[in-house]
Structures are given as structure tokens and as C-alpha cells.
Orotidine 5'-phosphate decarboxylase
Amino acid sequence: MEVKRRLIFPLDVSSLNEAQKWVSQLKDNVGVFKIGLELFVAHGPVAIEKVREAGADDIFLDLKLHDIPATMEQAARAASRHGVDILTVHMLAGRQAVRRTVEAVEGGTKVFGVTVLTSHTRAELMEIGYAPELSRDVKEAVLRLANLAYRAGCHGVVCSGKEVSAVKEAYRHLKTIVPGVRPEWAADPQDQARVVTPAEAILNGADYLVIGRPIRQADDPCGAAQKILAEMKEAFEKRGF
Ligand SMILES: O=C(O)c1cc(=O)[nH]c(=O)n1[C@@H]1O[C@H](COP(=O)(O)O)[C@@H](O)[C@H]1O
């Protein structure tokens, strides 16, 4: 698989024009474009059409569904009918609800389960009221949710590059999407807490990386994406791909 198909760019913008501009500008270097809450809440399914029209290879609809099983099932089926390649659910919705989304999607949409958000710290998990034995170690919480994702039949999970090696060790068939990635030349974590570089994420076992602001806020976004691709390629080669 081409390395660019492992790089996911989040279209974290609220205008359709802007989203299309990013796709046209980056599509030679980025294979997967992510439509998240910002764009989808503003424009709905039209956003998917526009991103496809602009030439995206693959589309990732990041809705992080978290609701009762019947609602998750219907929402996931409707999302898959828009022809998206990847859809996210939140694993805190529980195994039954996630299993129903996995069974409901049509046309080959792959369901990924979000474990612990990369913006969360251990202190935040404790404040939320996560079971103390899990929030003692974020990795344990991620592994617990990865176990649910595996048992629910998910294609993969979303986790940080800090836990991805533990996830791969325990569930080697689960694919992993890693956000919270910062190259050395754009090291500011911003609102991310558990951050790694592209090379670290891949050497730890990431299959896909989500990288937004380091590209979007760069003086030369295409150049930034190319630098990231080169780092990813080298790391995948070290892993024997
Ligand atoms: O599901 C996600 O994509 C996601 C999960 C997670 O735990 N952390 C996380 O940052 N994300 C998304 O990944 C992107 C990260 O963007 P940057 O921090 O700008 O690289 C955003 O679109 C987030 O919504």
C-alpha cells in the first residue's frame, strides 16, 4: 500500500470551500481525508460529496458515535450509505452498541473504535470518574477498550502512539489509527496530551496517522505533508513494509 494511504488529514474547517481547497492541495500526498464534527455538523452529508468531488481517495467520517444500541445502529447504517470508507464510534458506548454498528454498516465501511482520546491525561480520566484501577494507567484503560473493540468485531481502534504498541501486542489483527502526532519540527502539542512523532507512532505499530495542525498551520502545507510522508516511509521500511 502506498504510504500516502496511511496519512489521514483532518478537514477541521467549517467551510466547504476551504475543505475542497485542502483536498485539492494535498491529495497527491494524502490518501485519506477526515470529515469530523466541525464540518459535518455545519454541512451534513453534502460535505462528503464535496470532499469526494475534490478528489479524495478515501473518506473517513469521524462522528465518534456514542449512544444506545438502536440509535448507533441506525446512524451507522445511514453513514455507511454515504459511501464512507471509515466510521468511528466511541468504545464507551459499550460492546453491544458497537457490535450493532459493525453489523449495520453496508458497502464495506470499516468501523474503528475510539479508546481514550489523545487529549486526555490520567488526571482527567480520574476527574471523569473512570474506575480508579483503570485511570491509574491510561494504557490499561486503552487496552480494556481495545478488548471491547476486538470482541465487538471492529476493524480497528483509535489510540495514541503511547499505547499503540500494547494494543498491537494484545490484538495484532486490529488496525490502529493514531492521532496526537507531532513531528519534531512542529512539536507544540496544542490541546493534545499524549503525543508522539510520526516515526515513533509507526515504529510503535500505528497503521494510519492523523495529522492536522502541523500541516494546516505550516508555511508550506504540501512541503510539510511531504516531509511527514518521508518520515513515515522510512519508519515503515524499518518495520519491514
Ligand atoms: O478520532 C480522532 O480522529 C481523534 C481521536 C483522538 O483521540 N484524538 C484526536 O485528536 N482525534 C482527531 O485527530 C485530529 C487531530 O488534529 P491535530 O491535533 O490538529 O493533528 C482532530 O481532528 C481530532 O478530532
The first strand starts at residue 7 and ends at 10. The CA atoms of residues 26 and 62 lie 19 Å apart.
